[in-house]
Amino acid sequence: MTMTFAPVRSRAMRGPSLILLTMSLGVLIAQIDTSVVNLAVKEIGVELKVGVTALQWVIDAYNLVYASLLLTAGTLADLYGRRRIFAIGIALFTLGSLVCGLAPNADVLIAGRAVAGLGAALEVPTSLAILAVAYPDTRQRAQALGLWASCNGLAFIIGPTLGGVLVESIGWRSIFFLIIPLCVLALALTVSAVPESKDPKGRKLDLPGQALAIAALGGVSLAVIEGPRWGWDSIGCLAAFAAAAMGAVLFVLRQRESAGALVPLAMFENRVFSASLGIAAGMTFGMYAMLFLTPLYLQAARGDSAVLAGIELLPMSVAFVIVSQLSGKIVNAYGPRLPMTLGMAMMGAGLFMLALIPLDNGLLLIEGALLVIGCGLGLNTAPVNAVAVANAPAARSGTASGLVNTARMIGATLGVAVLGAIFAMFAGGIGSGSHMAAGLTPAYIGGGIGEMLGAAAAFIFIRRGSSQPAKG
Predict the structure, then answer these.
(1) How far apart are alpha carbons 70 and 51 in whole angstroms?
(2) Which CATH superfamily is domain 13-192 in?
């Protein structure tokens, strides 16, 4: 007995660490892909001979599928096995990246991005469930989740710099090919190191609800992105808006009547919970649009290389990583209201700064604005998740976490769609600095307004104890 105990214990210690490595690699892959593509949009547009509308779809095809399927992914994992769904997600991400790298035209590239978004939707939320099983001790689980979450910040630093180097030295297709070896490694680790687990009891797929959610979000995105090209009063645009409205209404009715609802509507009776979702969506509404438009401007109008544009984005990324490490201490000392309100307000102020800066010669001020945005993002990201989970029933903590991520991706999808459409409408395309500035100013102002609305919501609805689970 004594002779066999030590090796078994050693394997048990190695097991969770390998699982954590695998899950962290999975989220790192998804987040690097999200951040790195923004550096390539200018080169993609030049090689494939497409304008702003197609480039919006390159970004939003991923965001749209990701946002629409996040909640269903958790149910699939519980029903059919978490390791299986995670592995399928990584495999789809690999396939999508390969399609993007080989894409002969924008349509194929957009399709590949949608497949990659499907893979991310399956693997990212499932990784959290796998870690919860691998670390049953709450203290060890908190440490593991902290390391897992830090990969988001790491991706913000790696993505812009690595993406810029690859785009400049090898070409934009290389950013997709680079992901493939990492995906293969993650898939191999999943098969060899991650045990299977599932919890099908009480879980049920809501396929009609899922379809209605896709129709609602997809209809809005289609109408807003294509509106400037089709005409806002065109039959296609009006039909897309109508489909989105009908899908949203039917989705709410479905969730109210369905026993296995994707979104339990009773959770929204808690005003703090609802406000936290709105704040999460507002945060990414302005941020993702800024990450789409700013690299495009730096390269197309200022003439900066992809490498230089990536370096110019670093103040925001570094500030986010540093400040996010301090946000927990701020919450413990003052509660979540202060960092959430201040964080959203700083993001809004940074976007207003970008809107007012003379972009043809104001690089130093642009860097200052990005620094302010990064600090605000670091202040708000962790507290908004903690507040949402704390204000949901304990049995629904996983659903609450999924809803926060869904809200974030809905905000990102609509931000790129709406603010990108505003940019296209005023700029008339990718051209000179003066034309682009004419589109950037109203787009940044729109994003800043969204952030300030989130700051107001945080100030009104969030209280000192909002990040603490309710008693009883």
Answers:
(1) 29
(2) MFS general substrate transporter like domains (1.20.1250.20)
| Residue that the structure tokens 């200022």 belong to | 302
Q: CB under 8 Å to 178, separation ≥6 — which residues?
A: 162, 166
* Residue 471 DSSP symbol: P
Say what the pLDDT of residue 347 is: 97
Burial per residue of 412-423, b for 16 or more beta-carbon CB atoms within 10 angstroms, e otherwise: bbbbbbbbbbbb
| Phi/psi-derived region of residue 335, left when phi > 0, alpha when psi is between -120 and 50, beta in every other case | left
Report the run of H or E that residue 392 belongs to, with start and end: none
Distance CA 147, CA 90 (A): 20
Do the Cβ atoms of 210 and 69 come closer than 8 Å? yes
What is the value of pTM for the model shown? 0.83
143: tokens are: 């440490």
Angle, CA 414 vertex, CA 412 and CA 419 arms, to 5°: 100
In whole angstroms, what is the distance from residue 337 CA to residue 340 CA?
Answer: 5
Place 446 in a pLDDT band, splitting at 50, 70 and 90. very high
- Return the CATH superfamily for domain 268-472: MFS general substrate transporter like domains (1.20.1250.20)
Token look-up 């806002």 returns: 232
- Asked whether 321 and 371 are in contact (CB, 8 A), the reply is no
> Rounded to the nearest 5°, which phi and psi values hold at 127?
-60, -35
pLDDT band at 6 (very low <50, low <70, confident <90, very high): very low
Domain positions in the chain: 13-192, 207-259, 268-472
Number of H helices, E strands in the chain: 16, 0
pLDDT digits (tens, 9 = 90+) for 159-208: 777 888 888 889 999 999 988 999 999 999 999 999 998 877 766 788 88
In DSSP notation, 55-120 reads HHHHHHHHHHHHHHHHHHHHHHHHHH-HHHHHHHHHHHHHHHHHHHHH-SSHHHHHHHHHHHHHHH
Q: Residue 179 and residue 333: Cα distance in Å, rounded?
A: 40
Residue type, 52: V
Contact 466, 391 (CB under 8 A): yes
Please give the radius of gyration of the chain, using alpha carbons only, rounded to the nearest integer: 22
